[in-house]
């Protein structure tokens, strides 16, 4: 689990490694709470869809498993970047981000 507190424009970059090249379905679970940010995810400098608003009140919850699309990836190191792009109008100051886990599941061709 990774927690990150920051301000708009800041970026957290996490590196992970794949042992085999191939097409991977990507998914993640993140935290949602009243002081969490709106974030933009990217992989190897390519956007993984629209920005994600992680605001929730009153409880701290997860996003559940969010699909982030499929990507053709090489074996070796890859960089997941999380950029703080803002906050929900009702969010309290904090610009928090929490990543519970990232999944890169190989797509099996039959």
Mean pLDDT equals: 94
Shape summary: elongated
Number of strands: 10
Main beta sheet strand tally, sense and closure: 5 strands, antiparallel
What is the end-to-end distance?
A: 34 Å
Number of helices: 0
Gyration radius, rounded: 14 Å
Describe this structure in words.
With 110 residues, this protein is mainly beta. It is 0% helix and 61% strand. It contains no helices and ten strands. Strands 1, 3, 7, 8 and 10 form a five-stranded antiparallel β-sheet that branches. Strands 2, 4, 5, 6 and 9 form a five-stranded antiparallel β-sheet that branches. Strand 4 and strand 5 form a beta hairpin. The chain is elongated, with a radius of gyration of 14 Å. The mean pLDDT is 94.
Task: Write a concise synopsis of the structure shown.
The chain has about 110 residues and is mainly β. The protein has strands at about 1-5, 10-20, 20-30, 35-45, 45, 50-55, 60, 65-75, 75-85, 95-105. The chain contains no helices and ten strands.
């Amino acid at each position: 689990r990774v927690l990150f507190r920051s301000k708009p424009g800041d970026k957290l970059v996490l590196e992970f490694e794949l042992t085999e090249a191939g097409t991977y379905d990507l998914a993640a679970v993140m935290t949602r709470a009243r002081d969490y940010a709106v974030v933009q995810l990217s992989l190897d400098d390519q956007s993984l869809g629209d920005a994600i608003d992680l605001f929730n009140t009153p409880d701290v919850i997860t996003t559940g498993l969010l699909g982030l699309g499929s990507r053709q990836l090489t074996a070796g190191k890859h960089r997941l970047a999380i950029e703080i792009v803002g906050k929900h109008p009702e969010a309290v100051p904090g610009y928090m981000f929490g990543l519970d886990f990232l999944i890169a599941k190989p797509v099996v061709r039959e």
